[in-house]
Amino acid sequence: MKDWWKNSVVYQIYPRSFKDSNGDGFGDLQGIIEKLPYLQNLGIDVIWLSPVFDSPQDDNGYDISDYRKIYAGFGSNEDMDELIGKAHEHGIKIILDLVVNHTSDEHAWFVESRKSKDSKYSDYYIWKDPKADGSEPNNWGSSFCGSAWEYDEERGQYYLHFYSRKQPDLNWENETVRKEIYDLMKFWMDKGADGWRMDVIASISKDQSFPDYPKTDGRKYYTGKYHSNGPRLHEFIHEMNREVLSKYDCMTVGEAPGSTPEVARLFTDPEREELNMIFTFEHMNIDRIPGSVNRKWELKPFDLRDLKRVMSEWQNKLYNKGWNALYFENHDQPRVISRWGNDTTYREECAKAYATVLHGMQGTPYVYQGEEIGMTNVQFPLEEYEDIEVRNAYQDLVVKNKTISEDDFRKAVWNKSRDNARVPMQWDDSENAGFTTGKPWFRLSDRYQEINVKKALEKNDSVFYYYKDLICLRHEEELLTEGDYQLLLPEDEKIFAYLRTSDKEQWIVVANLSEDTVSTEGLAKYVSDKEDIKIANYKDRTGIKADLRPYEAFMMRIR
Ligand code: NOJ
């Protein structure tokens, strides 16, 4: 099928935490192979594999030192060939993570680049002289706190790194760099990879005047717009499409922080020949205070109206003009039911309700490992966190600048840290949740005996089977792929409801995202012809009339 990714559902695997096959406590490719039948049973079409390439693991593999070699902790290149082959046998495609805004500082290119100002590799990265007083070239800050510049004694210059100092940014202005990247993409696509998730792809083109941020509040370093959507971004992506993507039947999704729906159209309008879809951050930022010195760690209370406004805007503005990537969770985000819902009394209802909202929309839905069984956030003592983002933020904000108290920071980490999604997958209730027979690389959630795959498979109304039904609907119901979108009750603080309409039929998608019982009065007028329930998380739901119970959700054909 042309555009097969439009009615596909993607499942993201974070390999180090998915399944360990050899008892070293670290997930691996053979572990994934073992679980292919499980994924086939769930019904997903595509696996997105977070990076599995050689890496010092400073940022858990998003710091690659060899793009053509599998990291030994995950297995070998032969294991990767086997995984691609076996996934295909199970009817599952595989997309890989293309991390080419930066490499590891241990990549051979960088090792050579830092040696001298006039070798083949000198301009592979972004090098700048210190200012006259020896300070950084400008006031850009890293996403992981502190300066985005690191002074290199060997070369006598600063290099740019928007992430950790072990992740130097590549210089996309250099044509040879771009060619190297296109070659490595072909290397994996010729081995059968079915496409790419592109890490912070919106950041590859930098403003070549490297301007300072205006100093607004006495801060030393600033982050934001110079990270994203630079002047040559779309030219580069179009070139990548022409040189590589157009030659394969593949799917592409770009990670695009800072993008608006207008930018998403530039990326995804098929006529522009760039990418199939991008991940927006706009809905993920609704519980964040814009411009806060404490960044994502300063919590803003969740307001459902914001979520509806942002998601609806993306639905409407991309309709017939581009394509949406739909997600609530990934390896950088906490669990949605803990973040914006209820992960105790109504854990299963809530997981199904958020899933209904997401999978009812137009776009390609993404399920992050464990989301399909309603896994929850964790609350560990601060010193047990593994993520470099948490560790750096603690040093910078709590210890050094004292802009946030330790208590508030801990609360924010419990709510938002990336490690919430990175604890090992919960397969069963045995020791270490069946993730490993050894010592796990990271602590498990305390709730694995209550929440695990084995239990979910044994219970016929579990979150797992609800996802399975949703995925089935995505495959069978053209309306979900093609229909347009209309938000209902935009000001309602508890109900998320919308219509999907094609020339053949109309559906209503309804979710009560609260713990209260609420009336459906405001919705009844949209339902007159038909009341044909397509999916519901309370089995006795038959029509629109009855009140919505806590986290009740359904999709119903109404015309
Ligand atoms: C986005 C990735 O999703 C995240 O995990 C990583 O830390 C940064 N990009 C840097 O590669």
TrEMBL record:
Gene3D superfamilies: Glycosidases, Golgi alpha-mannosidase II, Oligo-1,6-glucosidase, Domain 2. One of its GO terms (molecular function) is alpha,alpha-phosphotrehalase activity. It is an enzyme of class 3 (hydrolase). Keywords: Glycosidase, Hydrolase. Its EC number is 3.2.1.93. Residues 12-422 form the Glycosyl hydrolase family 13 catalytic domain. SUPFAM superfamilies: (Trans)glycosidases, Glycosyl hydrolase domain. The keyword Hydrolase applies. SMART domains: Aamy. Pfam families: Alpha-amylase (PF00128), Malt_amylase_C (PF16657). Belongs to the glycosyl hydrolase 13 family. This is Alpha,alpha-phosphotrehalase.
